[in-house]
Design brief:
Blueprint (H helix, E strand, L loop, with lengths): L5 E6 L8 E5 L2 E7 L5 E5 L13 E3 L2 E3 L6 E2 L5 E3 L16 E5 L2 E5 L23 E4 L3 E3 L3 H8 L5 H4 L15 E5 L2 E11 L15 E10 L3 E10 L16 E13 L2 E10 L6 H31 L11 H18 L2
Antiparallel strand pairs: 1-10, 2-3, 3-4, 5-6, 6-7, 7-8, 9-10, 11-18, 12-18, 13-14, 14-15, 15-16, 16-17, 17-18
C-alpha cells in the first residue's frame, strides 16, 4: 500500500464525542480534536501497557491514557506520567499529519516532510449555494481496496449490479474511452438517446430520452470522482464541454477509499448536484438511494474477494478490465518506487 498519500481517516463530526481508533494502511492510529478545533493523530497504543488511547479521554489539546493516565501532546510527545517527575525514555509516540477539509479528516501515513495539504483534491463546487450536497456514513468492505478501485474504473458494471438504480439495458454494450493522467486514469463513455435510468428520473430537469456521460476517474492511490451528466438527446457526445446549459443535470460523486488492511477497506462518499440545492428532503432521499446502490457494490465485492481467496489460479481479463489493469500496474510501480527509497 502507498504510504506517501493523503487518506480519509474519519468524518470530521466523528471526533465530536472523543477519541476514535482507525486502522489505516495496516497501522492503528488514534484521532481526537484539540481545544483549538484542529484534529490530531498519533499511534493508537500507549507506550506503557499498549492500551488503545481511544479508550482514554481528551484533556485540552492532549490525549490521556485510560489505564494509568499518561498524557500525550498532538506531536506525540509524552508530557506527563502520574506518580513520577520524569518521563521515561521511549515514551513518545509517532504523530501523523492531519488536515480537515470537505467535512473529512485527512491523514498522511508516510514521510511527514512530504505531506503537502495542497495535494488534497480540489473540489471547486464545495460550499457553492448553487450545488446541493448529500452524504452517508462510512462503509466497511471486507475486501482489498483495489477491488473497489477496479469497480470504480468500470462503468459497465452498473448494467448488472445496479439495474434498478444507476444502470439499465442501455449501459450494457457501449464501449469505453480510457485516458491516462499523472494522477490516475479515467474511463468514460457517452450513452446516446437512451431512457433516463431509475435513480436519475426525478432529478433531470427535462423529459424524454437523454444523452448520458459516465465519467469514472480514479486517482492514486484510491480516490474516485464519478461524474454523471444528463442532457436532452442530441445535445451530448462532446467530452470537452463544461457548460451544458440550464437543461443539464450534473452529479459529481466523490469516493474516498481507505485501505485498513489487505482484506478490509473503509469507504467514505458524498455527492454534489446542480439541481434543487436547498431541498433537504431530496438530499436525504439521495443519500438513502446511493447507500442502497453502494450496498449492492459492497455485497458483490465482498463475494469477489471470497472467490479470489478460494481460487488459486489468476482470473481472466476482458475488455472492460483495461482501465483497472492499467491503474493497478501504475500504482504498483509507485508503491515499488516508494518501498525502494
Amino acid at each position: 500500500m502507498l504510504k506517501n498519500a493523503w487518506y480519509v481517516a474519519a468524518w470530521a463530526d466523528e471526533l465530536a464525542d472523543g477519541p476514535i481508533e482507525r486502522m489505516i494502511t495496516g497501522e492503528a492510529v488514534v484521532l481526537w480534536r484539540q481545544d483549538n478545533g484542529e484534529p490530531a493523530a498519533v499511534v493508537a497504543f500507549c507506550s506503557h501497557r499498549r492500551l488503545s488511547l481511544a479508550r482514554g479521554r481528551v484533556a485540552g489539546d492532549r490525549i490521556v491514557c485510560g489505564y494509568h493516565g499518561l498524557e500525550f501532546a498532538a506531536d506525540g510527545t509524552c508530557v506527563h506520567v502520574p506518580c513520577q517527575h520524569a518521563v521515561p525514555k521511549g515514551a513518545d509516540l509517532r504523530a501523523y499529519r492531519v488536515v480537515q477539509r470537505y467535512g473529512l479528516v485527512w491523514i498522511w501515513m508516510g514521510e511527514a516532510a512530504l505531506a503537502d495539504p495542497a495535494n488534497i483534491i480540489t473540489i471547486a463546487e464545495w460550499g457553492s449555494p448553487a450545488w446541493g450536497y448529500n452524504r452517508g456514513a462510512a462503509m466497511v468492505y471486507d475486501c482489498n481496496y483495489l477491488l473497489i478501485t477496479d469497480n470504480l474504473l468500470d462503468p459497465s458494471h452498473v448494467a448488472w449490479v445496479h439495474p434498478t438504480s444507476f444502470g439499465g439495458s442501455s449501459c450494457e454494450a457501449v464501449p469505453m474511452r480510457i485516458r491516462e493522467a499523472a494522477s490516475g486514469y479515467t474511463v468514460s463513455r457517452w450513452i446516446l438517446d437512451a431512457p433516463v435510468t431509475p435513480f436519475y428520473r426525478d432529478l433531470v430537469p427535462f423529459t424524454g430520452h437523454a444523452d448520458r456521460l459516465q465519467h469514472y476517474e480514479v486517482r492514486y492511490p484510491a480516490l474516485a470522482v464519478i461524474k454523471a451528466v444528463f442532457v436532452p438527446a442530441g445535445q451530448g457526445g462532446d467530452d470537452t464541454r463544461s457548460d451544458w446549459g440550464q437543461d443539464a443535470f450534473l452529479m459529481d460523486s466523490y469516493n474516498f477509499i481507505t485501505p485498513e488492511t489487505e482484506g478490509r477497506s473503509r469507504y467514505y462518499w458524498f455527492q454534489l448536484r446542480n439541481v434543487r440545492p436547498d431541498d433537504a428532503a431530496l438530499s436525504e432521499a439521495m443519500s438513502a438511494a446511493v447507500l442502497a446502490a453502494f450496498s449492492e457494490d459492497l455485497a458483490v465485492l465482498n463475494e469477489v474477494q471470497r472467490g479470489m481467496d478460494a481460487c488459486p489460479q489468476p482470473p481472466i481479463s476482458i475488455a472492460t478490465d483495461a482501465g483497472p489493469l492499467r491503474f493497478r500496474h501504475r500504482l504498483a510501480h509507485l508503491i515499488a518506487t516508494e518501498d525502494s527509497r
